[in-house]
Amino acid sequence: MNEWWVAAVVVVALVVVVAGVLLAVRLRRESVAVEPLQAEPEDRPLPAVVANPLRVEPGARARITAVCTSLGWAEPLWLETTAEDPGTGQARRAVEQGADVVLACGGDGTVRSVAQALAGTGVALGLVPMGTGNLLARSVGVPTDLTSATRVALTGDDRTIDVGHVRVDGSDEERVFLVMAGTGLDAAIMQNTDEALKARVGRLAYVITGFRAMFGPQTRVTLSVDDGPPLRRRSRTVVVGNIGTLLAGIVLMPDAAFDDGKLDIVNVAPKGLAGWIAVLLRVITRRRHGHPRIEHWQAREVVITTEAPQAAQIDGDPIGEVTELRMRIEPGVLVVRVPAGPEPLALPAGRSATELAQAA
């Protein structure tokens, strides 16, 4: 009797074990069956980061990666700029490898270089500002906080903006600008501002350098605006803008918009301290028209020719002294990721992001 009882217990135990194994296998199969409903790593959208290693703060890569994976994106393709290639080649490689968005992680120079590769492709440019100016990021409302900016780059709205092109001193090479380019005082400020001073006081360094340079001599320039006759002027600075807002929110060109298909041109030619005070008051109050020392034009193309070599800048980056800048605007060719909101930024009359991608 006891032997039968023991045998029965053993049989029941074996049945329980086998049933448990079968149940585990079934549950495993069911779990495997539902896994395809979740995005496999290769199905997740791919972000790429073009980073300036001289600008990227410690821990930035880990933080950006954490934001990407938390939002269901793949780990980012990380490409660092070099002195020989400040971002254009890296952005092209990112597009070739299937990136759905390319984050420019650095200053305005990095943004411009990445934009040069992305223009016309339909692939969105994400902005993770780490420079001193960050003019494009500020103009489209991208936050300066790394985590918040990365979220915008992954989840924001797409907007198409115009891209400026400039050729220097008759060169066949065209460079891109997104914010503004010019010659004279503004370029001299960018060229002469000390890096150590910028590290200590930030954007105030530009103000200090600008005050020192305000009272230099004027120069003679010739402006060719679209097909109009040459305009000869005295000048302290000529600025051509796709965006009209300077550092500290100062609006130099109130009619400028990054999606209107036009370049805005301003020539400033004050004389002495009183002239500069009058100009600054006009700029601050946005009362431009009718002032003899501030002139404005809008055009699709403009050529600036200087009597003598003058300092020049493209998006705040000094390019040395030049005698000719030849500029044109290309409407609506760059997709930029901006903060999502109920009141989207104005769109140009040009092509949409989808149309750009189809045309690429």
From TrEMBL:
<comment type="similarity">
    <text>Belongs to the diacylglycerol/lipid kinase family.</text>
</comment>
<keyword id="KW-0594">Phospholipid biosynthesis</keyword>
<keyword id="KW-0547">Nucleotide-binding</keyword>
<keyword id="KW-0808">Transferase</keyword>
<feature type="transmembrane region" description="Helical">
    <location>
        <begin position="265"/>
        <end position="284"/>
    </location>
</feature>
<comment type="similarity">
    <text>Belongs to the eukaryotic diacylglycerol kinase family.</text>
</comment>
<dbReference type="InterPro" id="IPR000756">
    <property type="entry name" value="Diacylglycerol_kin_accessory"/>
</dbReference>
<feature type="transmembrane region" description="Helical">
    <location>
        <begin position="237"/>
        <end position="253"/>
    </location>
</feature>
<dbReference type="GO" id="GO:0008654">
    <property type="term" value="P:phospholipid biosynthetic process"/>
</dbReference>
<keyword id="KW-0418">Kinase</keyword>
<dbReference type="InterPro" id="IPR045540">
    <property type="entry name" value="YegS/DAGK_C"/>
</dbReference>
<keyword id="KW-1133">Transmembrane helix</keyword>
<dbReference type="Pfam" id="PF00781">
    <property type="entry name" value="DAGK_cat"/>
</dbReference>
<dbReference type="GO" id="GO:0004143">
    <property type="term" value="F:ATP-dependent diacylglycerol kinase activity"/>
</dbReference>
<dbReference type="InterPro" id="IPR001206">
    <property type="entry name" value="Diacylglycerol_kinase_cat_dom"/>
</dbReference>
<dbReference type="InterPro" id="IPR016064">
    <property type="entry name" value="NAD/diacylglycerol_kinase_sf"/>
</dbReference>
<dbReference type="GO" id="GO:0005524">
    <property type="term" value="F:ATP binding"/>
</dbReference>
<dbReference type="InterPro" id="IPR050187">
    <property type="entry name" value="Lipid_Phosphate_FormReg"/>
</dbReference>
<keyword id="KW-0444">Lipid biosynthesis</keyword>
<feature type="domain" description="DAGKc">
    <location>
        <begin position="91"/>
        <end position="170"/>
    </location>
</feature>
<protein>
    <recommendedName>
        <fullName>diacylglycerol kinase (ATP)</fullName>
        <ecNumber>2.7.1.107</ecNumber>
    </recommendedName>
</protein>
<dbReference type="InterPro" id="IPR017438">
    <property type="entry name" value="ATP-NAD_kinase_N"/>
</dbReference>
<dbReference type="GO" id="GO:0007200">
    <property type="term" value="P:phospholipase C-activating G protein-coupled receptor signaling pathway"/>
</dbReference>
<keyword id="KW-0067">ATP-binding</keyword>
<keyword id="KW-0443">Lipid metabolism</keyword>
<keyword id="KW-0472">Membrane</keyword>
<dbReference type="Pfam" id="PF19279">
    <property type="entry name" value="YegS_C"/>
</dbReference>
<keyword id="KW-1208">Phospholipid metabolism</keyword>
<feature type="transmembrane region" description="Helical">
    <location>
        <begin position="6"/>
        <end position="25"/>
    </location>
</feature>
<keyword id="KW-0812">Transmembrane</keyword>
